[in-house]
Design a protein that fits this description.
One of its GO terms (molecular function) is methyltransferase activity. This is S-adenosylmethionine-dependent methyltransferase. Keywords: Methyltransferase, Transferase. The protein has one domain: Vaccinia Virus protein VP39 (Rossmann fold, 3-Layer(aba) Sandwich), CATH 3.40.50.150. Helix 4 links the parallel strand 2 and strand 3. By secondary structure, it is an alpha/beta fold. It is globular and about 50 Å long. The chain contains six helices and seven strands; from the N terminus they run H-H-E-H-E-H-E-E-H-E-H-E-E.
Length: 208
Amino acid sequence: MDIGKRFDQVANRYDTPDKFERSKIFVENILSQIPVKNDFKVLDVGAGTGTVDILLSPYVKEIHAYDLSEGMLSVFSEKIRREGIKNIKIFREDILNKDGDHTDFDLVITSMTLHHIEDTYKAVKKLSDFLKVGGYLVVVDLEKEDGTFHSDNTDVKHFGFDREEIESMFRSAGLQDINVQTVFTIDKEREGKIRKYPVFMAYGRKSI
């Protein structure tokens, strides 16, 4: 089963209050640390049910949201319809493996997606290629963990990342002004105890 179909199975129960709070913190950090403008064109890769994009949409001109799961995007589409949001476009497509002229984005974001991708250096380079000069790439994902975050690691390619890894990926992609910091912690019960899993936000700017 591919990862899109796997997420189809959980789409209708994916949204939870804790995920909403995480998305809210992510967007708050973007708005406080990156000079987002109301004419920004944004790309979100691995958009899921769209919570991040819906929260970000009032602050930018348009958002192009990509995901592989038809089920997740169906939930996303219903949210947009219900809330009357007009500046988000949804695509069910693997944009990371697509050739094309997508180099006009001011901001590219991806949240909790990178650890599902085998070749992260290639993925970060591709994400940076979507940016116009001066644009920003933002990645949110797990810090290095022991493999216990997911109850099923079938589609997990990396058990998080350390800061040196992320900085190296960003530098290899030609990004500058790189910043990596812990922005929140996810609590999960494991073997009768609460385990804490830190999550980082990394960003860099395309200067050439």
